[in-house]
């Protein structure tokens, strides 16, 4: 009978780093497509440079989050994705006519 080695770390619960990166990339990609659809719908109803600016910056942020996730910066990507989504929704609600 073997006893467990006390120096060996216990397996961590939760997602593996690879799986977390894949989920973050998928979430940012879905958000990117959703923002593109909303941008097209907004432009169909009214043409405004502010609309293009708000949704364009949010789409760029999604691309940045995808690159951060590919490079292993999933926590930073998560925070940026959440902050960017909240900012885009607030700008849409407060700034856009």
Structure report:
- By secondary structure, this protein is an all-alpha fold.
- The chain has one domain (17-94).
- Helix content is 74%, strand content 0%.
- The protein has helices at 17-45, 49-70, 74-94.
- The chain is elongated and about 70 Å long.
- The chain crosses the membrane at residues 25-44, 50-69, 76-96.
Key phrases:
97 residues, membrane, transmembrane, mainly alpha, single chain, 0% strand, elongated, transmembrane helix
Task: Please outline what is shown here.
The chain has helices spanning 17-45, 49-70, 74-94. The chain is mainly alpha-helical and 97 residues long.
Topology:
Layout: H1 17-45, H2 49-70, H3 74-94
Structural class: mainly alpha
Q: How much strand?
A: under 5%
Q: What's the shape? A: elongated
**Share of helical residues:** over 70%
State mean pLDDT (0 to 100 scale): 81
Query: What is the string of SSEs from the N terminus onward?
Result: HHH
Subunit arrangement of the protein:
single chain
Please summarize the sheet with the most strands.
none
Kindly report how far apart the N and C termini lie: 72 Å
Number of helical segments? Answer: 3
Keywords: Membrane, Transmembrane, Transmembrane helix
